[in-house]
Amino acid sequence: MLAYTYVEKGRFELCEKPRPQLIDPRDAIVRVTLGSICTSDLHIKHGSVPRAVPGITVGHEMVGVVEQVGSAITSLSPGNRVVVNVETFCGECFFCRHGYVNNCTDPHGGWALGCRIDGGQAEYVRVPYADCGLTLIPDGVSDEQALFVGDILATGFWATRISEVSPDDTVLIIGAGPTGICTLLCTLLKAPRRIIVCEKSPERLQFVREHYPQVLVTTPDGCPAFVKSHSEHGGADVVIEVAGGDDTFRLAWECARPNAIVTVVALYDKPQVLPLPDMYGKNLTFKTGGVDGCDCAEILRLIAEGQIDTTPLITHRFPLDRIDEAYRLFESKSDGVIKVAIEPPSR
To answer: Is the pTM for the entire model greater than 0.90?
Structure first.
């Protein structure tokens, strides 16, 4: 089968690999029907994810059809359409039982697919703990509608949940990339008083204006003054940092009012500094990622009800055999790209 492979820092290649096989009774083999490229894949390519293993198939955003299940799997059957969760989790350890599935203590727990074990920018993928890591797609929900549920939409849903957004809040979302838009969609479900999106890309700001006209927008240079002038208490009640830029972490806490919640979802290429003397007295509460992707069934229900729609994010489509071209486009952020759908060969 075709599989996009992490060869070494700065180098991915499309290779022929054997189809994956069941290894554990809780495994499932999924035929990928639609995948995508995530910014986290670029972090692997740039060498910013030390735990990523050269030789693995990359990719962790995908939907597909169950082809085979292990002997311990009773909740899934061949032919089921499923979302694949970005997190691998056993469902039984302390952290899983408390909903902190990103911190699963299994050796393959957390972000494994496309990082430490073979992922889904391929024709087939083996999913460990498939009874936890696969979620049935409801009838009437398309692959395109479900594509982002297991990763960036789960991230936006989780980030909004832990940010404790209330109807009286002014919420600042820093970053209008794919995860930022998913966070915006989930924040809209909470109906806060005001949402402000900060983004430097004119194309992405225009995307927000066109699709979510009820949302205020600003640029990083003007963000602190804009937020202060559109807030009741000198800053945002909740700040969700999704951009991961060189200065966006500082921007997040600077734009927060005293005693605000600052949620950091972004994955940075280099360490960030927490300058406590500069923020002394603001009494901020920081919450940090990565995602606990345990709300996929709820998200799919909301999609089926028409309350969430991420299909406008799919701006480009490529077949798997042109995935090099898709990566170049996605990394360059050219041609108005937001998300790229990758289509494996029909079987």
So the answer is: yes
